[in-house]
Design brief:
single chain, alpha/beta, Trna Endonuclease, Chain: A, domain 1, 2 domains, 13 helices
């Protein structure tokens, strides 16, 4: 069912208005906005413009019950008999009830429906006509939609650059082997991560020549020989290595796990995803980086990747959890989830902190369950 006009109240949760508009595809959307919601109304208007849906903003005073009655009647009369569907999700309960009641009284059969967008359960409930029941929400939103609904936008995104994809694909076999052998290579990850950090400590004077404390074991030696094959580093067969450059150092400093995630996501076909993305805040000045952002079925999954050992720096460990939780909430609104991928097991304190923030952790040998967990989240 579609109608020329979709009527809604501006709200702090813009996706509850955007999703029905994208699914019903009205000719235009009337956005009723109280003084407190004017900024959110403008955000929704911009989101609708991205999808070629016209809209107009209508001021709606909310001083008291008498004002709500008068404003609802005014809007109903201004609709002048045009077919309309009213989205009752936004606004206060009083506003939604009075608007629906007056619209039904004034417009009668021209009110083709009253809906409620239940984003938590991913459905559109039809309050009128009641016999229609509910429609499942379509898999509609892109990353730009979800970020835009919160006032955020994407900055630089590595995984959307052809040269980055070509580079990552060229060493895909190496990356997959690191991921599949993660339960056996914890010590090597820690050593290489530490050497990579030392190599890049002074960006103006990188020190790519580094030395292990001890000669690597045979299993680690096989990985180092493969890295040499891909020209990521040179190894003398003993304790000395030399990273081939900044990109190689960053790869062994943790970048490989982001690339491993890239292949897993690409193979699972979510609605949208990015790797190594810059997120620009509503003020246009503040920015943060996230290792991965995934969108599917109108929900956001924010993922951070780590190869360093947890439990050595409690403050740093806490900052990682806070970053995942806060960015996921601010950028994803109500429909968000945070995830941490760690090449090495977490200490008890960090694991407890992750649970406290509702962050799912795949660490050490459990990293192999990544494909399974992505499937479960997407279903």
């Amino acid at each position: 069912m579609s109608a020329p006009i979709l009527l809604c109240f501006a709200t702090g949760q813009n996706l509850a208005n955007l999703i029905p508009a994208l699914q019903l595809r009205p000719e235009t959307v009337w956005i009723l906005t109280t003084p407190a919601m004017q900024a959110q109304a403008q955000v929704l208007r911009k989101l609708l413009e991205r999808h070629q849906i016209s809209s107009q903003i209508e001021a709606f005073a909310d001083d008291d019950i008498t004002t709500l009655q008068a404003e609802s009647l005014r809007i109903a009369e201004k609709l002048d008999g045009q077919p309309v569907i009213f989205n009752a999700t936004g606004g206060t309960k009083q506003m939604a009830f009075i608007m629906a009641d007056n619209a039904l009284q004034v417009l009668g059969p021209e009110v083709q429906g009253v809906i409620y967008a239940d984003t938590q359960h991913q459905r559109i409930d039809w309050l009128r006509p009641a016999a229609r029941g509910s429609d499942p929400m379509d898999n509609l939103l892109t990353l730009e939609d979800i970020l835009g609904a919160q006032g955020y936008r994407l900055g630089e995104v590595k995984s959307r650059q052809p040269e980055w994809i070509a580079k990552v694909e060229a060493r895909s076999q190496m990356t997959r082997e690191l991921g599949e052998k993660v339960d056996k290579l914890g010590g090597l990850f820690g050593a290489l991560n530490g050497l990579a950090q030392k190599a890049l400590r002074d960006p103006a004077r990188p020190q790519y020549h580094q030395e292990f404390d001890y000669a690597p074991s045979q299993q680690y030696a096989d990985i180092l020989r493969q890295a040499n094959k891909y020209q990521l580093l040179k190894w003398d067969g003993d304790i000395a290595i030399e990273f081939s450059g900044e990109d190689a150092a960053r790869y062994f400093g943790g970048g490989w796990i982001e690339e491993y995630l890239f292949f897993k996501l690409r193979g699972n076909h979510p609605r949208d995803f990015v790797i190594s993305a810059e997120i620009i805040a509503p003020d246009g000045k503040t920015s943060n980086e996230m290792d991965a952002l995934v969108v599917h079925r109108n929900r956001l999954l924010a993922i951070e990747c780590k190869t360093s050992r947890f439990g050595r720096d409690a403050g740093k460990d806490a900052d990682i959890m806070y970053k995942i939780d806060s960015l996921a909430q601010r950028a994803g609104g109500l429909m968000h989830k945070g995830m941490l991928l760690s090449a090495r097991p977490l200490d008890e304190v960090s694991a407890a902190r992750a649970r406290e923030h509702g962050i799912e952790v795949l660490a050490g040998p459990h990293l192999k369950k990544l494909t399974e967990r992505l499937h479960q989240w997407m279903d």
